[in-house]
Amino acid sequence: MTDPLTPLERRVYHYLLDFLAENTFQPSVREIGRRFRIKSTKTVAELLQALADKGFIEREGARSRGVRIVGWSSMGQVQPVPLYARVNPTDPYLTEDNRERWVAMDRAFVPADDAFFLRQSGDAMMSRGVHHGDWVLISPSTRARDGDLVAARVGSHVLVRIVARQGAVLSLAATNGESREIFLGPSDDFSVLGVVSAVFRTWHDEPATEPVDE
After folding, report:
1. Exposed (0-12), middle (13-18) or buried (19+): which is 122, by Cβ within 10 Å?
2. For a disulfide at 73, which of 17, 104, 144, 186, Cβ 3.0-4.6 Å?
């Protein structure tokens, strides 16, 4: 998972997205500085390098406009969100090799800059509105509370379940009455990947991909 952006980094990143959509080319270092009232070109370069280090852009240092936005879409007010076909069983759980594609999303639907999509498999959470084949938008930055829907890695599997804490024990519950509730303690191999913040469903057939495990 990428490190979260600082508020200023996020504003610069969104400015790069919108400027490129409106002008078909990127702003120069000096234009970025003027936009955010940053007098030092070195400070602007450091901001761009931070975005590059966190995987949001790629840079060509010798060029004033040498910025390429990773997963860029040509529409304004949007942000690329990665869709992962699978999750690694060990950290780092999300890697480029497992990324299926980028999805251009209106920023109003993106809860955080580190959000990502997974596909749901099975009907364990149908009564919570999550059906087989749905795209679930996961927010790693959102703190999980009891009763929240989360994506959790348990061993080599990823499950979308209702989370609750009972002391040092974490429970993951389904809603279909068939899948058993799972109890996890400090000695178990698991991690909460993030909170489900939205569910997207298509009404047309899509190419088959590897979904989240049931």
Report:
1. buried
2. 104
| Residue 58 belongs to a domain | yes
Residue matched to tokens 């993106």: 110
**Of the residues 69, 95, 117, the one at which a domain ends:** 69
The structure tokens listed for 120 are 């749901």
Domain identity same for 92 and 163: yes
pLDDT, tens digit only, all 214 positions of the chain: 567 899 999 999 999 999 988 888 999 999 999 999 999 999 999 999 999 999 999 998 667 688 999 988 677 788 999 999 999 989 999 999 999 999 989 999 999 999 999 999 889 999 999 999 999 999 999 999 999 999 999 998 999 999 999 999 999 999 987 788 999 999 999 999 999 999 999 886 655 445 455 4
> Count of H helices and E strands in the chain?
3, 11
Give residue 142's domain range: 78-200
Q: What is the CATH number of the domain that holds 100?
A: 2.10.109.10
